[in-house]
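Thread title: Can someone regenerate the structure for this chain?

I was given the following input by a collaborator and told the matching structure tokens would be attached. They weren't. Posting the sequence so someone can regenerate them.
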Amino acid sequence: MDFGDFDARGYRTVDVRTGYGEWVASYEDTVQDTMDIALLDRLTEPSWASAQRAADLGCGTGRTGAWLREHGVRAIDGVDLTPQMLAVARERGAHDRLIEADVTATGLAAGTYDLLISSLVDEHLSDLRPFYHEAWRLAADKAHFVVVAFHPHFIMASGMPTHYRNHAGEDVAISTTVHLLSDHVGAALEAGWQLAELRERVVDDEWVAVKPKWERFRNHPVSAAFVWRRLP
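Best answer:
Regenerated them for you:
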């Protein structure tokens, strides 16, 4: 769905590459682990340490890659559209390779990865189907694909796009699309994935401690994590 139907902020909107290129300096001070990392910590699948090679799709500054390393993933390739984000990820050193590419057309070798992961990327994709199909192409038999998403309910209820404050002090939105959870399920099943696990995170005491202004959203779902499995 078009985010414009829900927009309560009216910020000037830029494309993904422009937005993340400008946001990079303050990105890690803005994005909270309660949004995505906390959900990864709660998953029962996959067995992270058993993964031989992972593809981190939309790797950004390397936050997710660092978490994967801490949990025993042996080798990680990262893909991102924004050179400035990749430069920060390169300094962090969690990835074996970093590739500048679109997550729907990575150029990586087919059937190579037994773990794929993508965090807080889907709201920037106009169509989820190429995303799930590309992950399927990259996946080996019995691979898992973990997708952490900004919950569509929160985007709609808050009217808030992904946004940042630029050097001039202006709040700027990054192009946002609302994908229902059923959109994920439909696109993933079409590509061949089987759903193994789904968890949702609500605004709770931990969230309100981080963002007190979100008290009015208490108990609203704010993020979701899907675990998809590729059967042999």
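The longest strand covers residues 139-150.
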